[in-house]
Design a protein that fits this description.
About 35% of the residues lie in helices and about 20% in strands. Helix 1 (about 5-20) crosses helix 3 and helix 2 (about 25-35) crosses helix 3. The strands form two sheets. A three-stranded antiparallel β-sheet has the order 1-3-2. It has a two-stranded parallel ribbon with strand order 4-5. By secondary structure, it is an alpha+beta fold. The chain is elongated. Residues about 1-5 have low confidence and may be disordered. It has five helices and five strands. A hairpin with a 3-residue loop joins strand 2 (about 55) and strand 3.
Length: about 140
């Protein structure tokens, strides 16, 4: 998933989380994010693939009805005020390895407190020689 799409999805989640009763019109989303209403629909579908659930009502808007248990910045950041850990959170639906991504980012000067998360890891295993020992998607929280 490209950075623009992830950024738009994160912003959409923030907007829904801050909306009264989780209800926002497609027009409001389009205006707030600077994208077409067709793009809004596509991002809603991508969020649904990530476990979010919405109810759509014609001429009213979208209502967020279920939030998945994911470590997305827009879901976690409000709970980490005044905390260095999680000062920046990079979430993706899938990564080969969160550890490898974090290591690469640290070598390139990533800020202290950066957290790299993913719904699923697709690499060979958690640690060297640990192939097959990875918990199912959404079930692991490893340091």
């Amino acid at each position: 998933m490209d950075k623009i799409a992830m950024s738009t999805r994160e912003k959409m989640v923030e907007l829904f989380m801050g909306a009264p009763e989780g209800l926002i019109s497609g027009e409001q989303l389009s205006s707030a994010l600077g994208v077409s209403r067709t793009a809004i629909w596509k991002h809603i579908k991508l969020l649904e693939e990530d476990g979010f659930e919405f109810a759509a009502t014609p001429r009213v808007g979208y209502r967020l009805t279920h939030v998945p248990d994911e470590l997305m910045a827009s879901l976690v950041a409000p709970h980490l005020r005044d905390c260095t850990l999680g000062s920046q959170i990079l979430w993706a639906p899938e990564r080969p390895s969160t550890n490898d991504t974090a290591t690469e980012l640290a070598k390139s000067g990533a800020p202290h407190g950066l957290v790299v998360t993913a719904a699923r890891q697709t690499g060979a295993g958690v640690g060297k020689g640990a192939s097959g020992n990875r918990p199912p998607a959404g079930c692991g929280f490893l340091f």
